[in-house]
Amino acid sequence: MEVLMENLVEQELVSLDNVQLKVENKIALPENAKKLIGVSCQLLGQHTTVAENEITVNGNFAVRLVFVNEFEKYDSQDFSEPFEKKIVVKNVDDINKIFATANLVDSQWQLQDNQVVLANMVTITVQNVKSHDLQVVSNLTGDVEVRKTEHQILSFNSVLHDKFEVIENVELDHSCEGVLGVDVNPNLKDIATVAGKVNLKGTLVVNILGVKLLDNVSVPYNVIHEIDFSKGFAVNGITAEDLATGVVSVDAVEMHIENNQKGAVLALKLNLAFNGSIYSNHKFNSVVDAISFDKELSFKAMQANCVEVLPQVNSTIDIESNLNMTPNWPYISHVLAVDGARINHLQVSVGDGKTMLEGVLVMNLWLENEEHIITGDAYEVPFQAHVRMDNIDRDYAVNVTAVPLSVNAKARRGTELLIDAQLGVTIQASSQKQITLINDIEEGVTKVEDGSAIRIYIIGEKENLWDLAKRTNLSCASLLQQNPNLENGCTPGERIVVYRHENVNL
Predict the structure, then answer these.
(1) In terms of Cα–Cα distance, which of 348, 311, 319, 270 is closest to 424?
(2) Is 455 found in the same domain as 420?
(3) Owning domain of residue 423
(4) Which contacts qualify for 48-51: CB closer than 8 Å, 24 or more apart?
(5) What's the pTM value of the predicted model, to 2 decimals?
(6) Cα–Cα distance for residue pair 2/142, rounded to 1 Å
(7) Does residue 490 sit within a domain?
(8) Which one of 5, 26, 461, 490 is at 20 to 30 Å from 286 when CA atoms are compared?
(9) Residue 41 sits in the same domain as residue 98
(10) For the segment 137-190, what is each residue's pLDDT rounded down to a tens digit?
């Protein structure tokens, strides 16, 4: 008997640490600011560096202050506050196989002594790639009955990080006096793999906060503009059967206003980043059971930990909610604009083939009351939603990213606001599973012939009673007499006992 072995290398993505920290920044209010209207914050341009047993995460908090200046005009100013966090990692074999991602999960602000005090909650996830060498029995030759199965190991392959640029010109309203700021929300709709390449398709939802003249009064207003994008990244060795996951984020936004024959145009230059992972799908045939007719066999089995990664789900969910103001709130005539929308306190639960999302939608609203006084403040809207995911259960670890794509608000009955929002959601689920593999077979002593000539057969795939009769050179009646369980049908992989005391030519 000859034993053929197969060597496999499985790479597993392991979470080392999940750090949550509070980062405080103080920004002096601009000298020309008479009244602060709203504050928005994003974490942009992040990257990681690794040295010895320490990983450093860098980025910038892009903060925008919207205010009324000394000329009673709406104005804004952008600030960039550096962010850096060093994390010590332990028990790592290869420091070069560590990476980290940072996410801004909550942002709050307050005004103290002409300073805007920011309190940002950031979560940093540190992950490591571990390699496992596997050697399994893939084939046997000789007088042996073999039961095989096809296994799939979805192994972590590599981290994919790349940047790309999108340039777009947006025509502005003829009455536009200026642009206070731009929020860009990427919505990744599709991620696919082909030979040597990963292809992305999605939409950038651009929320432009501008100022225009209305009855000779400057008021803020919103313009929603959508930009479709597609981008391909070359990845060596990737195939159509491999799996790619990831998210698109905003790295930087540059803008300026140009004038042409049609009027004012907002020229946008958007730097986007794709952060993802590649998983390779390895298929191999391995022996899971075997019986020798002449000699005793002993098996050595091993348990292999494999990761099962479900295809990434990119979806949109709609939120509709009523926001009731306090009883003494002035009568609301109009909602002029929405700015700085974000998701805070996002929580995820899994069950019954769907992912349940619960969080808080935070936004800055610009309201005009019946006395034509304009105020701006941050408001919170709790929400619950679910996204369907096939083949998912509570054993899966789920990573969810949610961004507000568009938010609309309307005044109702003077003391109530109707909030209508659309969120872009990216869900990635993975689970650990165990498979049993035979990694060694030893051939023992020759079986003693006791006259009964007992043999054991393993039922193969799609075999029926007639097939077994031809294979064992016995009648169907004899097989049923020796193995009454066959009356219920033939189960692949099941053993049957054959006493060769009848020789029938079929």
Answers:
(1) 319
(2) no
(3) 2-281+309-434
(4) 48/99, 48/100, 50/95, 50/96, 50/98, 50/99
(5) 0.83
(6) 7
(7) yes
(8) 490
(9) yes
(10) 988 887 777 888 888 888 898 889 999 999 999 999 888 889 999 999 999 999
